[in-house]
Target: Enoyl-CoA hydratase/isomerase family protein
Amino acid sequence: MIDLAIDDAVAEITLNAPEKLNALSLDALQEMDAAYAEAEASGVRALVLRGEGRAFCAGRDIAGVDPDSDDVPGYLGAVERLMRRIAGFPAPTFAAVHGACLGVGLGLAIATDVVYVADNAKVGSPFAHLGALLDSGGHALLYERLGAHRALDLIYTGDLLSGADAVAAGLFSRAMPADELLDFARERARRAASGPTAAFLASKRLIGRMRDERLWDAVAEESRGQEALRTTADYREGFAAFQQKRPPAFRGE
Model:
């Protein structure tokens, strides 16, 4: 489900499970990690991440997950390792985000250097409907860019931002019509690949040092919180409701 193509020093990694809106299982996370490792070993000078079909990434694939036996630390540990690999990739990275960008999908975008989004993309935290905790660095992004009140408003309601609104709020780089998005991201990646990439990486390291303490602390705290919530009745109800395609009936327990 993870495709890697390399052309003229530019890598393109594609999430290719459109039937599930590119939701990611643990196996898919490991495939993706391997794709980034292969791209790094090839010496590419820029990389594009995108999703096939109607969405960038709708988050975790929980279709067959039993919350009573769910290995939350294992899954979120794989998410953090992948995010760290993306953030540390030794070349400029670009993401083309369209459709749903939720949960783990949001984390992939957070870890990427430059994020271009479709005007009508849907970005945010749907966890209010699941009984789970926003993860993959979402708390750090929303708090840093939106402030405490707006961040908690989105978390409590589960409302999503359009791509245009997310860019206007400072979450991502720029928004554009969906039919222009991928060509634009590819052109910008090719331009970066032909530029002074050693200088670009020096800037990337500086920006990374300013960003990383808050981001990785938040990721670790999110992982601990998610594991604690796994034993609650609302967590089990949220998973069951999602899998049965019905509204959840939460009890606050």
Q: What stands out?
A: The first helix runs from residue 26 to 42.
